[in-house]
Amino acid sequence: MESKYNEDTSRFGTRIYVTALDSIINVNSIFAFAVFIGLAWNPSDPNNTLINDPQCSPGNNVREDFISFQVFSFGCFVFSSIIALALKQALKIARNNTHIYETMTMAQNSTMARVNKTVLRVVILGSAIGSLMGFIFLMLGLVNLVQIKLGVLSCPNNGFTLQAVVPLVILVPSALVIYSLIVVYAFIH
């Protein structure tokens, strides 16, 4: 009876990991798509700006940083998603192979194959760190996008840029802290 309980608990735990990996993949896909669309936009288009004061116009370094941060963000989201997909596939393969093995050798009192939880947690943590880095680079890219559209942050006559950037710089890191705490909690437990 206890053997049945341990088997059910192990399978339930695997489902939790697969669900967590699905969530990482879904969120990364949405943001990677958004970054990909951002990369299609031309930051040097003079008709696509709201800047009235020529002194507030960003230099080429802001445009270059925008593209760089978008590419870094895209790379981090793809990295995180590929790791999560690979781990999810490995869990499914291990579960299927274990089931076949148990069916064939039931008379020999076989046990369910065990997943190394330390490796599993480290890989999930690596995937979560990739997502976090993607969010940070996406936020930095958005700050540069606001500067391209509304003017540089250092421009004294331009309060619109600060009004757009301040909520972004407050809300995104707050969400990242909450996300990090949940990942750390899941990692520990």
From TrEMBL:
<feature type="transmembrane region" description="Helical">
    <location>
        <begin position="165"/>
        <end position="188"/>
    </location>
</feature>
<protein>
    <recommendedName>
        <fullName>Maternal effect embryo arrest 60</fullName>
    </recommendedName>
</protein>
<feature type="transmembrane region" description="Helical">
    <location>
        <begin position="67"/>
        <end position="87"/>
    </location>
</feature>
<keyword id="KW-0812">Transmembrane</keyword>
<feature type="transmembrane region" description="Helical">
    <location>
        <begin position="122"/>
        <end position="145"/>
    </location>
</feature>
<keyword id="KW-1133">Transmembrane helix</keyword>
<keyword id="KW-0472">Membrane</keyword>
<feature type="transmembrane region" description="Helical">
    <location>
        <begin position="20"/>
        <end position="41"/>
    </location>
</feature>
